[in-house]
Amino acid sequence: MIGLSDNSVRAQIPVIIPYLEPRYSLLAYIGELKTLGLTNIVLVDDGSGSAYSAIFEAARLEHGCQVITHPVNLGKGAALKSAFAHVAKTPNFAGVVTADADGQHSAIDVAKVADKLLENNSTKSNTLFLGTRTFSATDVPWKSRFGNTLTSWLVRLLFGKFISDTQTGLRGIPASMLESQQTVRGDRFEYEMGALFSALANKVPIIEIPIKTIYPDGENRETHFRPLVDSAKIYFVIFGQFMGFASSSVLSALVDIALFVFIIDTFFEGSADPQAVITSVVLARVGSSLLNFS
Question: Quick check: 166 and 152 in contact, CB under 8 A?
Answer without folding.
Answer: yes
